[in-house]
């Protein structure tokens, strides 16, 4: 990461939160994303098919570490119709623990290898993603919806104290 930054290259890291000790080692990155695939332990086991027995503890430890980072952070929720679009309070509690700069709520997209696990009908519509995001934002008092991209079926929530600071200052990387 340091070598990339020395060359003025931005770095975006995405993790499913299963390696908290590795996340802890990241001193600087342009943005760190943690995917939260489900709002509770039982759902995560079903959806995520975890390798580790302590998968829920690992995710929560990663979210705690995320809250201590000084660089840009994001939590990504990929919604799958009839799979993980329940328990908004569970998602809100996990997001509050992580205190990310951004929350990206996106629809599962029926592409690539995922077509073996899900069907086309499992993709939430943009309206469903928007409704979910609006309801989630009610539980997240420190966030507001700041953007969306309809073709990608994505809604962005930004932490209120970060609004206006969204632009990346590459000179600080």
Q: Roughly what is the average pLDDT, rounded to an integer?
A: 94
What is the CA-CA span between the terminal residues? 10 Å
Number of H/I helices: 6
Instruction: Please give the oligomerization state of what you see.
Output: single chain
E-strand count:
6
Q: Largest beta sheet, briefly?
A: 6 strands, mixed
Could you describe the 3D structure shown?
Strand 1, helix 2 (20-24) and strand 2 form a beta-alpha-beta unit. Strands 1-2-3-4-6-5 form a 6-stranded mixed beta sheet, with helices on one face. The protein has helices spanning 2-6, 20-24, 41-48, 55-66, 88-98, 126-139, and strands at residues 12-15, 31-35, 72-79, 102-107, 143-149, 154-159. The radius of gyration is 16 Å and the shape is globular. The protein has 6 helices and 6 strands. The chain has 173 residues and is α/β, with parallel strands linked by helices.
In short:
The chain has 173 residues and is of the alpha/beta class. The chain has helices at residues 2-6, 20-24, 41-48, 55-66, 88-98, 126-139, and strands spanning 12-15, 31-35, 72-79, 102-107, 143-149, 154-159.
């Amino acid at each position: 990461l340091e070598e990339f930054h020395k060359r003025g290259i931005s770095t975006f890291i995405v993790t499913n939160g299963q390696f908290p000790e590795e996340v802890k080692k990241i001193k600087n990155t342009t943005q760190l994303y943690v995917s939260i695939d489900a709002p509770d332990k039982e759902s995560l086991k079903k959806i995520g098919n975890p390798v580790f027995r302590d998968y829920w503890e690992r995710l929560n430890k990663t979210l705690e570490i995320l809250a201590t980072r000084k660089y840009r952070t994001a939590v990504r929720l990929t919604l799958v119709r009839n799979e993980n679009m329940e328990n908004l309070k569970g998602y809100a509690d996990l997001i509050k623990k992580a205190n990310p700069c951004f929350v990206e709520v996106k629809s599962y997209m029926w592409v690539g290898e995922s077509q073996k696990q899900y069907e086309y009908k499992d993709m939430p519509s943009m309206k469903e993603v928007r409704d979910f995001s609006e309801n989630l934002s009610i539980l997240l008092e420190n966030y507001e919806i700041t953007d969306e991209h309809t073709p990608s079926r994505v809604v962005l929530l930004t932490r209120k104290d970060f609004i206006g600071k969204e632009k990346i200052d590459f000179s600080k990387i």
